[in-house]
Amino acid sequence: MRHRERPLLVSRAAACAWVCGALAAILAGCGDDGAPAADVPDVPDVEAAGEVPEVDAPGEAEADADAGVPAEAEADDAGGDAAEADVPPAEIAAALAAIPGMRVAEVESPEPGYRAFDLRFRQPVDHDDPSRGSFEQYLSLLHRSTDAPVVLVTEGYVNWEPFGVVELTAMLEANQIVVEHRYFGESRPVPTDWSRLTIRQAAADHHRVVEALSWIYGGAWISTGASKGGMTAVYHRRFHPADVDGTVPYVAPISFGAPDLRYIPFVAAGGDAACSARLHDLQREMLARRDPLLALLADYAAETGQTFVRMGGLEPTFEATVVELPFSFWQYHGLSECPAVPGTAASDEALFAYLDDVSGFFWSADWAIDIFEPYYYQAATQLGYPDVERDSLADLLRTDFTDLEAGILPAGVGPVTYDPAVMRDVADWVAGEGERLLFVYGEFDPWTAGAFELGGAVDSYLFVVPEGTHDANLAGLTAADRAAALDALRRWTGVTPHPPASWRPAGSLPKPALRKLRGRKSGS
To answer: Percent of the chain having pLDDT more than 90?
Structure first.
């Protein structure tokens, strides 16, 4: 299962994450009453957290740098002694424990040849004023060798799959560090000052992570992420361009408005005019059958235990999901699934099932909005979001989508103001000062309407997967583009990437046999 990245409907934000198997685990955790077990995990109390340790020079850490961290999770005495050394201990667990502010727990590794660690790294809520408190940021590490490259995965949301190997890690036989985004999941400060959820503060989080772990890992570093995770990787580079040797953002948009109107004509064009026309006819048919489909949604809510209070109830949820149908279809389904679009004569049950499959009612449920409300705040204040076409449906709509904002913003946050200068600054940096950037997009993915423009970026690339969706990756590129991408990675890292067998002609497999990719890109 994957999260359907969805546009904001004027004021409605919807998250864009790679959830995959994690969502199935959440839904499988529902109790007998069907209520989803998907509350945001508990987070540490910053009032008991102590000061944020400096990480620039592990050898200079004070003995009480981790004051306030629960005793049962602190590094042992050996780790504290190791922090006095100028070089990290040879044993990776001891080296990690020697980093001030780092809590370390080794877990069973799902990947042969790797050791796996859950890490909690103390970060300041405000990097400009550490006296404002701190929080623990959740990191996960797959350790291969201190000499191997490092792939830094900047999640845009929760660290859903902490030990899922991403495409670059497999090809480079690299170490992998996944960083949960501040204010998501376990990494939310308490109390929560939403004004400190900015792209610059998040970039400073990633900068401190690189500073801390580059003491151990001296090889090349490549940052990556998908969707909002890819956006996050670019933001990190904008503020700390020398932290890594290259960045590979997958399907990462940059929006210039709240909403951004560029997405409407892109989605309208779609991958096939006839397919887009069928989707539009289907939208109108669904809205015309409002009463029976709303009855099915009520049954769905009762059976699953899901509530839709924050969206304003069942009717706004239904209308928003219908309006998003074309965007959702081209995002994750695409040209190959056009023959499966139902006709307008399909039964109520068939229409409801199709709408739920493509757009997903559960993403409008209260539990989902609770999890992704940090994104809603970011989209409304700095990131922007796509507009979606409603004019052709206006005669059948009843919802004022501007009224949905109050329900999807965090509690206690009043009206917010979008700052258009933030994304313009990032775009200007990419085009004017960016270097060693490699963007990957899907041809028919609606988010490609917001693709970055390279401008004068040095040693940088933008590749498009033909007929690709929001699942686009290096494997889907043309042979020539794949070769160019691999050459860039080789130059940036000094390591020859090993592509999966599917990229090569029969009989040309290298020896020993390549490790099989798990079919997933970087996370967000």
So the answer is: 76
* Residue-by-residue DSSP string for 393-430: GGGG----GGGGHHHHSPTT-------THHHHHHHHHH
* Per-residue 3-state assignment (H helix, E strand, C coil) for 365-389: CHHHHHHHHHHHHHHHHHHCCECCC
* Structure tokens belonging to residue 523: 């996370």
Q: How far apart are CA 521 and CA 18, in angstroms?
A: 9
The secondary structure of 62-127 as a DSSP string is: -TTTTTTS-GGGS--HHHHHHTTSSS--SSHHHHHHTSTTEEEEEE--SSTT-EEEEEEEEEES-T
Match 């890594």 to its residue by tokens: 244
Query: CA 192, 212, 169: angle at the middle one, nearest 5?
Result: 95
DSSP string computed for 214-239: TTT--S-EEEEEETHHHHHHHHHHHH
**What phi and psi, each to the nearest 5 degrees, are found at residue 170?**
-65, -45
pLDDT, one tens digit per residue, over 154-204 is 999 999 999 999 999 999 999 999 999 999 999 999 999 999 999 999 999
Q: By the 8 A CB rule, do 133 and 192 touch?
A: no
DSSP notation for 429-495: HHHHH-BSBEEEEETT-GGGGGB---TT-BT-EEEEETT--TT--GGGS-HHHHHHHHHHHHHHHSS
pLDDT in tens, 476-513: 999 999 999 999 999 999 999 998 776 654 333 232 22
8-state DSSP, 134: E
Residue 257 CA, chain-centre distance (Å), reads 20
Residue type for position 374: P
Judged against a pLDDT cut of 70, whether residue 24 lies above it is answered with no
pTM for this structure? 0.84
Count of residues for the chain? 524
Q: What span, in angstroms and rounded, lies between the C-alpha atoms of 251 and 14? A: 16
d(CA 110, CA 515): 14
Tokens of 325: 């149908």
Say how far apart CA 204 and CA 208 lie, in whole Å: 6
Q: Which amino acid is at 162?
A: P
Cα 61 to Cα 64, 86, 88: the distances in Å are: 8, 11, 13
**Contacts with 302 (C-beta within 8 Å, 6 or more apart), sequence order:** none
Q: How far apart are CA 321 and CA 386, in angstroms?
A: 15
Buried b (16+ CB within 10 A) or exposed e, 244-275: bbbbbbbbbbbbebbbbebbbebbeebbbeeb
Q: Kindly state the tokens that stand for 463.
A: 């590749």
End-to-end CA gap in the chain: 15
3-state secondary structure of 302: helix
Query: What angle do the packed helices 314-323 and 325-332 form, to 10 degrees?
Result: 50
The answer to whether residues 201 and 175 touch, using CB atoms and an 8 Å cutoff, is no
